[in-house]
Structure formats: structure tokens, C-alpha cells
Amino acid sequence: MTQSLHIAVIAAHPRRRSFTLAMATAFADACRADGAVVEVRDLYRLGFDPRMRAREMPDHPGYAPRADVVRERQAIGDANVFALFYPLWFNAPPAMLKGYVDRVFGMGFGYSPIQRGGNQPLLVGRKLVSFTSSGAPQDWVERSGAWAAMHKQFDEHLSLMTGLEIADRHNFGAIGPGLAPIRFKECCAEVDRHARRLTAGHRPAS
């Protein structure tokens, strides 16, 4: 019997009617159509606070995650796949998403401390997929070195700390005001293809 795939879609954009949220919705819909269980976390609409307080630092006496972090960990804790959707601002994730990763994927969820100052990854066997968008064309993002640098500093380090497997990563370049409807449809179709590849092998028997 095929086990259902659980996917946490984590989206970060201040505008509800944004390209980022549209792609996140298209991805979630495609995954659900293939039988996946999908939990969408729209960080701005949730009012998530990305600021980490001093008492949330792991070395703080009496350290414990705050209530909002506990809720988020419960909401996404069953996920086999974490799908991140966000725009590139200064060729980096928005502070909202970075703060979410810092607070939610930190100690006790993404990793646990071990002796001699090391960490034990806690999300081994689960996957990370990322969909981003940029105003600059994708060829410029790659030629400038920004794409490789962000992959190294964000995706790979998150994978190293938590054990997540980087399963997919895609950027939609040249996205801005006045996006042609045909281009928007092409992007939706691209997201759908990525979703179908991800859910292949987990589809319930007809």
C-alpha cells in the first residue's frame, strides 16, 4: 500500500495576490490532486514573528521554544517534504522566511545537540524543495554568481544542519509587474510538472 506524502508548503510574500503565493497555491493543488496531504503556511497571513528573542537562544538558561514556534512545529512536523516559496530580495530569502527557518528549524526540530559541541540532524530522510522568483533574468542570476552563492549559504547549510535532502530547486527569472498571462500560465505549468515528479511513486492506486 502506497503511503501518503505529507508536504509542508511554506510561503513568504507580503502581498496576498503575488506571484509567489500563486505558485505556492498551484504547487499545493497539484500535490493534493496526486493524493498528497498538504499543509500550507502563509507566513505573512499567519502574522509569524521572524524575530528571535534572547531567551530562544539554545544557550540561554531555561531555554524553551515560544508558543508560536511550538505551533508551527506541530503544524509541519509530519511533513516528508518541505517546500519553500519566496522571492529573491538582494539575492537572498526575505527576512520573514529566514527568521522562520532560524526559529522553527532550530534546535529541537531541525537538530539536537550532541557532546563536544556538535549537532545531530533530526530531519534525515525528508526532502527540501525551493521555488524562488527574481526580477532579474535567470541567466543573469547564474552568471553573477548569486544563484550558486545562495545555494551554498542557505540551501546547503540548511541541509547540512538538519539532514534534509535537497530534492528540487527552481527560480523563475524576469518576474515583475505586467507579467504576460501566457508567461504566468507557463510558470504554473512548470510548478505542476515539478509537483508531479515529486509525488510520483506516492500516488494512490486507482
TrEMBL record:
Gene Ontology molecular function: NAD(P)H dehydrogenase (quinone) activity
Keyword tags: Oxidoreductase
A cellular component term, taken from the record's GO annotations: cytosol
Pfam hit, one: Flavodoxin_2
Chain ranges of the Flavodoxin-like fold domain: 6-154
Stored Gene3D superfamilies: 3.40.50.360
Highest rank taxon of the organism: Bacteria
Protein family according to the UniProt entry: Belongs to the NAD(P)H dehydrogenase (quinone) family.
Annotated protein name in UniProt: NAD(P)H-dependent oxidoreductase
